[in-house]
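name: query_chain
kind: protein
chains: 1
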Amino acid sequence: MHDPRLTPVRGDIAAKYLQGKVEANRFVTGEEFEVVEAIAAVREQPSSNATLMTEALRGERVTIYDRNGEGWAWGQLNADGYVGWLPDAGLARPAATPTHVVSVLRTFAFPGPSIKLPPADTLVLGSKLTIVREHGAFAVTRDGTFLPKIHLVPLDHREPDFVAVAERFVGTSYLWGGKSSFGIDCSGLVQVSLTAAGIGCPRDSDMQQAGLGRALEAHEWDKLQRGDLIFWKGHVAIVRDGATMVHANAYHMATVIESTGPAIARIRQAGSEVVAIKRLA
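structure:
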């Protein structure tokens, strides 16, 4: 069975690279677009009321296979392979290669070189931009907006501690499918944090459990280290140290730091046991 989250196939259409592997009425090569909205929703169906599966951030590339003529485009995110429907208005042909990435939870893009101007946009951690020049304390994008240089790093920058990135999100509201400081879910927190550290990461917690690190043996579970990932069915948390963890969760409806033992007990009481603990290094 093909995972529909990662396989661009419907009964009527599928990606050309899947020809011979799946059944569809026609196969198309697809066209590459970039996300030009600050945050573009990736939904299960072409409707603003459909489930939010994930989000694509400014500068992300996506291969589009179908456009329904009603404002929605169906495609696959290039970075993590996720498939879904995006707002057509949030996409454009790639115009330039990104050079920098936003390194803070949120920053403003101003229409000119002054912090007193009303911001033209709000961009989030992980957004990719093409910077064409500097102007004092600002970096100027190819579309003429001004961002604080201090909030950007070169595209190849790697954060040294992905757990510290996750900790910055403490207090962020929980949002199913979210992956920004406006709203984030458990696996989104893991993905955004690892991506900032230059570590490739799938989108959903079951994919992360299957694809990241090595599984600790049961006798190792009482010797947790910073950066270990604790998995439940449908949930993941990041170990901070021997006693605490950070995770985005629907119990608190926020990203929180809490004591690991009591959290595991609380989640067990709600009917879910730890299914794996993975160590990345």
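note: The chain has a mean pLDDT of 97.
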